[in-house]
From TrEMBL:
Keywords: Membrane, Transmembrane, Transmembrane helix. InterPro entries: Metallo-depent_PP-like, PhoD-like_MPP, PhoD-like_sf, PhoD_N, Phospholipid_Metab_Enz. Residues 39-137 form the Phospholipase D N-terminal domain. The chain crosses the membrane at residues 20-41. This is PhoD-like phosphatase metallophosphatase domain-containing protein. It comes from the Eukaryota. Residues 161-304, 311-401 form the PhoD-like phosphatase metallophosphatase domain.
Amino acid sequence: MSMNTWREDRQQMQPNSTMLITLAFMHLTSLTGLTFTYSVASGDPFDSSVIIWTRAVPKSLDGTTLILDQCLPACVSYRVYTSSMLSGKPVSSDEAFTSYDVDWTVKVDGTGLKPYLFQFADCTNVQTVSPVGTTRTIATAAKHVNGGEPLTFAVISIWLNQYRTDASLVVAHAKAPWITDDHEVADNAWKAGSANSNDSASGCTWSPSGACFTDRNDKLRIWRNFKIGKLLDLTVLDTRVYDRDLTDVYYITVVNTIAAFPNCSIMGLAQEKWFYDTISHSQARGCVTENAVYSQQIVFSQLNFGGFFDLNTIKKTVILSGDSHANWVSDLAHPNDTITYSPKTGAGSIGQSAFGAGITPAAADNISQQLAAMNSDLQWSEASFRGFFTLTIDSETLNATYYAMNNISFANLDGFASVNFVVRNRENKLLRPVAGGIVKAKDV
């Protein structure tokens, strides 16, 4: 086995198993034991698989020093048990390598699984174990569901090192699987570089995502689709890097002269064809709510879909994003449509968009007021508070609840639910009165 084999090997697990994984360090000269430096994480859950991740760094013989020798690989093994006590015969086990060139990170793609717990451990020292992670798979497509710029590998690894030591993030990663977007790259990137050319390898290495496994011949592809039972399809796009044409990289002003060219693309032909095929298949397979949820990083309402949703009778579309650094909730209507779309009733809407603000820009309230004045379909905008939003989707409704933090100068839980939006099944518009007429935080 080569030391990179672990990145290529999708290990097969036994179906319907409670899964606890032990990671054993195989003895190498002058080394003893492992240190799990960044807890555990999981991500990209499908109906029978999920990616689990950890970082296991070898220690020196005296156990006090981390070994970061670029020439020294580490052989690890894992075992899968049906028992939460790790008793009995393991149902699956194997070995793999990790090394300095992937920052000692370890990924295992477990398949044939139900919800499970997982843990990594050093089998040469049973006292050296990682925290226990909790993850789950999603329902099969046939089932109904019940309700700093990063410049180089070294630089982005340091950046992610810092993020992964955040206490709250450590707990969040260990408690549930994450589906990450296309933000692990430099700002304003495109297919041939960025404002400062970056290395995409760390984003793949440090993320508990199966995107690197999506296409073995295309390591930069992260666009993928999750069929969440008969309830909805979640489609994750890459609108920032993969095959994107030249964008604003601050020092190349020519982009302003070609931005409106019809042959310019933010996704490229391969991803566009996959996207349209995925939308068509989502509609054809008969989701009970006819939901199509798209996660990406641009303001989708500015794009021209050429009537695709109407022609294919796609009845409910929700766009998720966060790149605008503001909270927005909007009906989606054709640009400058004052005939078929009614801001008062929502009639004529072809979808909804929900944008979240992890960070906030300066003069946010003024920006929001200007945007609202120019967009009749924008129903709510708020960019003064940092926070997050949640989506709760069942066969009857989609609920989007936004949460705002009162104070971000120190770690605290002093927050509140600022607003809630509802979309009823097959109505394809925000329920009126918008937000039930109750808004606790707003710029407009």
